[in-house]
Amino acid sequence: MNRETNTDINIDSLFAELRNTEPCMQDQGFSTRIIAELEQKAELSFFKDALITMLFTLLGCLLTYAFFPVAELMALLPSSIHINPMSLLTLGGSVALACCAAYWTLDTDRI
Amino acid sequence: MNPTDQALIHAVVKEDSHRAFAELVKRYQSPLRYSLRQLTGWNEALADDLAQETFIKAHSALSSFQGKAKFSSWLYRIAYNLMLSHFRVARNRELTGGLTGREEQSLWLDNHHEEVVSHESLQLHRDLAQAMNHLSEKQRMALHLSLHRECTHQEISDIMSIPLGTVKTLITRGKACLRERLADWKSGDES
After folding, report:
1. Of A14, A56, B44, B190, whose Cβ has the fewest other Cβ atoms within 10 Å?
2. Three-state DSSP class for B22?
């Protein structure tokens, strides 16, 4: 170091000189590199997200297939159904109510 | 008119605007890269890597920036933590037989000798960075933030997450160590 130094060197004035002569670093593609890396990361995380979702969906399907008691549930289904006029009326009324509700919801744009 | 930092941060958080983040990087890259050079013994490659990592980390954590402190202070906090963790890893590698920090630096200086010679005007900055390299990381950071960036003790305490008293001690001891280093250099030049 060719600067005049001694044990009583004034550190504050040395730093003041550094402050005044601080070079301005040119960007020279620095910010572009960072943005490129961020974009690459974003793409990666999208594929990672999709992959994780697919893997868990597959796992869910396999577990369901293996453990879901399909046969037992099928056995619970009735083998014959008797329809009387009252149940037909109830079904018709329910369908009409559901249609009205759907129409009213769409009409008032509440979805 | 240039948008404020706050407006740019808002655009990044709410709209995920890369253009706004690029503008923030352009604003702060020069002082951050310079500071990291000062803190790594003027190792340009390492300083730029740390700066790049700092900005990437800042991008992912930007939603947590509450605007209580200056954006630059927040960046310095991230950079400081990254620098500490880098040196911790380097020390561990040193223990397990890898290149030591000093060897790595001298290797880098050998590789970049031409560049060093061609930038005479930066000599003072390099010399001081190399003198500072003999201080502890905490002393270096405290001294740099206090004397170069003119941060208050409270700001330094917030950036480094240490008590005010420790900041004062680090600065006083750092100055004393730096004086010794510079005196050694002087006597080295004379001999």
Report:
1. B190
2. helix
Distances (CA, A) of B68 to A33, A40, B57, B71: 29, 31, 19, 9
Closest CA to B57 of B30, B79, B73, B40: B79
> For the segment A94-109, what is each residue's pLDDT rounded down to a tens digit?
999 999 999 888 776 5
Burial status of residue B10 (CB atoms within 10 A of its CB: 0-12, 13-18, 19 or more):
middle
- Using a cut of 0.90, tell me whether the model's pTM lies above it: no
The label of the residue with tokens 């808002």 reads: B10
Q: What is the DSSP letter of A53?
A: H
> Nearest-CA neighbor of B179 among B149, B150, B139, B126?
B139
Indicate if the alpha-carbon torsion angle B27, B29, A35, B60 is positive or negative.
negative
- The string of DSSP codes covering B75-86 is HHHHHHHHHHHH
Looking at residue B138, its amino acid is: K
Q: Does pLDDT of B159 surpass 90?
A: yes
With tokens 């399909």, the residue in question is A70
**Does the pLDDT value for residue A36 go beyond 50?**
yes
Q: So what's the pLDDT on residue A43?
A: 76
Integer Rg of chain A from CA: 37
- Please tell me which of the candidates B25, B51, B128 has its beta carbon nearest to residue A18: B128
In the predicted model, what is the mean pLDDT of residues A4-28?
81
Instruction: Give the residue among A20, A63, A18 at the shortest CA–CA distance from B143.
Output: A18
Distance CA B23, CA A34 (A): 12
Choose the closest CB to B29 out of A12, A30, A35.
A30
Binary contact (A6, B25; C-beta < 8 A): no
The A-side interface with B (CB below 8 A) comprises 1-7, 9, 11-12, 14-15, 17-19, 21-25, 27, 30-35, 37-39, 41
A22/B21 Cβ within 8 A: no
